[in-house]
Design a protein that fits this description.
- By secondary structure, the protein is mainly alpha-helical.
- It has three domains: 51 residues; 88 residues, Tyrosine recombinase, N-terminal domain (DNA polymerase, domain 1), CATH 1.10.150; 180 residues, Orthogonal Bundle (hpI Integrase, Chain A), CATH 1.10.443.10.
- The protein is 51% helix and 12% strand.
- It is built from 16 helices and ten strands.
- The chain has a three-stranded antiparallel beta sheet with strand order 1-2-3. Strands 6-7-8 form a three-stranded antiparallel beta sheet.
- Helix 2 packs antiparallel against helix 3 and helix 4 runs antiparallel to helix 5.
- The longest helix is centred in the middle third of the chain and has 20 residues.
- It is globular.
- About 4% of the residues have low confidence.
């Protein structure tokens, strides 16, 4: 859209044509009048459109990237995943040695590897691998769309990742936080020792523990997602490949009673609220709860943990009760059993085998071990 700026030297208003390129950068040109600026913008857009319609083997990298992003946005992938993808592609297009207006096939393996090497050194191997996934998926999409052909020239080897295990609190720590959850400090708490009460926080924590839900799934809960007669809850999940999915999961008796009592209390203050958990300060659903858990943990004097850690805690509790792994997978709503195993950190199979060997308390004597070894050699 053309814009006007005042020339600091002459004091006159001047017209500029301005357009945002697929790389995210803005291109401007000084024009005589608004019509000339509009004509220039139309010319640039036409050139970009023509470049995106070039033959398969000659499509430019920025055209491939732009059409890939447009397709993913139209598909309805989650905003967070789309922004992450956009960030990666923009970084690639602006990387040293990358020529966005040249054919995508011209971007060689070495240039991509150096770009990812930099990410690995400055950020982490995990971040570099995430960038690599986005870049390879862009090629795979272009191939499926008929824009490019052949094997992906950017198939760089994965980087070594240093994974820090997620902190999962002991069950006792959760209940300590739960005990003080409804006590919110105010400006005079340090003097009076009195706290404001927000009773909705206890049902909030209990919902996370009894459903193993993700953070956004509980915050987005609506009254229509609660079926008290059938004792079940509907949890909506945004998927990476677009759209929303839901699952009905059982509602425990304790949670059923707590949620009913909570809604009755909330009805007095927010009678027309459609969401289950309302922020008392705004009268709307929570948009962010990033600091809530930190403050509750500090109040209970336990090591800090987040809402997602409660999901891991639920899985660990189920595992400690020897609930079948398939049932835990169903509760967590994982498509892969491997992901579920990572959640519960289960060693139950090894535990059973060790109990068989050492459960009686008898220890293999050194002499017996030597005899066994000599027998094998014989």
């Amino acid at each position: 859209m053309p814009i006007q700026r005042k020339n600091k030297k002459t004091g006159k208003q001047e017209w500029f044509g301005r357009i945002t390129l697929p790389t995210g950068k803005r291109k401007e040109r000084k024009c005589k009048n608004k019509k000339e600026a509009l004509d220039w913008e139309a010319l640039i857009r036409r050139k970009l459109t023509e470049s995106s319609k070039t033959p398969t083997h000659a499509i430019s990298l920025h055209s491939l990237a732009t059409r890939h992003l447009e397709a993913q946005e139209a598909k309805g992938i989650s905003k967070r995943w789309f922004q992450d993808k956009k960030l990666v592609i923009k970084a690639l297009l602006n990387a040293p040695g990358v020529q966005p207006l040249k054919p995508a096939m011209n971007l060689d393996h070495e240039t991509v590897r150096k770009f990812l090497d930099t990410i690995s050194k400055e950020k982490s191997g995990s971040r570099a691998n995430r960038y690599l996934r986005h870049i390879k998926r862009m090629w795979a999409w272009g191939k499926k769309a008929g824009l490019i052909s052949g094997e992906c020239p950017w198939d760089v080897e994965k980087y070594k990742e240093k994974r820090n295990p997620r902190y999962v609190p002991p069950e006792d720590d959760f209940w300590k936080v739960y005990e003080f959850a409804d006590q919110v400090p105010n400006g005079g708490t340090h003097v009076s020792g009195k706290y404001n009460l927000e009773p909705h926080r206890k049902p909030l924590l209990l919902t996370y523990l009894h459903t193993a839900a993700r953070k956004s799934e509980v915050l987005d809960l609506k009254k229509e997602d609660l079926d008290f007669s059938a004792r079940k809850i509907r949890l909506w999940t945004a998927k990476r490949d677009g759209g929303m999915e839901y699952d009905w999961i059982p509602m425990t008796g304790i949670l059923c009673e707590e949620l009913q009592a909570h809604l009755e209390r909330q009805k007095q203050t927010f009678p027309f609220a459609e969401h289950v958990f309302i922020n008392p300060k705004t009268g709307r659903k929570y948009s962010s709860v990033n600091k809530m858990m930190d403050r509750m943990c500090d109040r209970a004097e336990v090591k800090r943990f987040g809402f997602h850690a409660i999901r891991h805690l639920t899985a660990s509790i189920l595992d400690s009760k020897m609930v079948p792994m398939a049932d835990i997978q169903a509760i967590l709503r994982h498509k892969s059993m491997v992901v579920t195993a990572n959640y519960v950190h289960s060693i139950r199979g090894a535990r059973v085998e060790l109990d068989k060997v050492f459960g009686t308390g008898k220890v293999i004597q050194l002499e017996d071990m030597k005899k066994a070894c000599s027998g094998e050699q014989a």
